[in-house]
Every structure is written in C-alpha cells, then in structure tokens.
C-alpha cells in the first residue's frame, strides 16, 4: 500500500469509527444530557477523528485534552496551529527515515499537501458530517 492509499485509509478508518460510535449506548446517553450540563474537562482520543468533538461545543466548551497511543502523528502541528515542517518531519503515511533525500522531501511535502487539501476542502467530511448530525437532533 502506498502513502496516498495510507492517507485515504485513515479517513476510511475515521468513517468506520464514526459508524460504530453513533450506535454506542454511551453516545446515546450523552445525547440525553441537558444542554445546560457542563463538564470540567474533555479528554479526546486523537486517533478517533473529529466525530466526538461536537460534544465540546454542546457542553459549553470545557478545556479539551487530546491524547493518543499513536505517538505524535505528523499532522499534529497542523491541527494545533504550529509550523508544518513538511521537508523535515516524515509523514506517517510514508516510510521515510529521519534523514530524507531531496526527492523524499519533495514527496513528503506532496503527502502533507494531499492531506491538507482533503482537510481544507471538506472531502473527508461528507459521510462523517452525516453521523455528527445526530448531535443536532436532540
């Protein structure tokens, strides 16, 4: 499997996770909470995608802590507003080492650009936003 397939597969993973989560009793229980209910803190599993982040707004924007057992995905800086080092930080989708050649750096930048394009155009949100709409129904 190539790097582009890896990137696309991650979005497929997020979609499957969303399909599973929307059927969970715990999610249905959260939807029953009154919208004036507040949490002191939300701990979010980074690798579960963005599906459950709708609860942050629903419960008054408590502090959000994202955690992951997946080390630090290469796109973390992009999500947190930090500098994106496309030519020095290997993308998780590729098999480049820490010391990349010029050609590998160019491909690595392309992979980051692919993910950025998918994220910024909303291509990854077509089905997931349908699942997330259940938050608006209560």
Summarize the structure.
The protein is mainly α.
Helix and strand element order: HHEHEHHH
Taking pLDDT < 50 over at least 5 consecutive residues as the criterion, the unreliable ranges are none
Give the overall form. elongated
Terminal CA distance: 41 Å
Protein name: (northern house mosquito) hypothetical protein
Organism: Culex pipiens
What does this protein look like?
The protein is mainly alpha-helical and 138 residues long. The chain has one domain. Helix content is 45%, strand content 6%. It contains 6 helices and 2 strands. Strands 1-2 form a two-stranded parallel ribbon.
Note the topology.
Layout: H1 3-21, H2 25-32, E1 42-45, H3 54-58, E2 64-67, H4 76-80, H5 102-121, H6 128-132
Parallel strand pairs: 1-2
């Amino acid at each position: 499997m190539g790097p582009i397939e890896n990137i696309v597969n991650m979005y497929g993973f997020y979609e499957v996770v969303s399909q599973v989560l929307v059927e969970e009793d715990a999610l249905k229980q959260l939807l029953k909470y009154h919208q004036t209910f507040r949490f002191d803190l939300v701990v979010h599993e980074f690798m579960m995608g963005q599906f459950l982040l709708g609860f942050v707004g629903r419960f008054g924007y408590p502090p959000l802590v994202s955690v992951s057992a997946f080390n630090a995905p290469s796109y973390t800086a992009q999500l947190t507003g930090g500098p994106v080092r496309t030519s020095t930080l290997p993308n998780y989708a590729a098999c480049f080492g820490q010391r990349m050649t010029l050609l590998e750096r160019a491909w690595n930048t392309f992979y980051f650009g692919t993910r950025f394009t998918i994220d910024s155009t909303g291509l990854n949100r077509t089905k997931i936003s349908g699942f997330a709409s259940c938050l608006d129904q209560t």
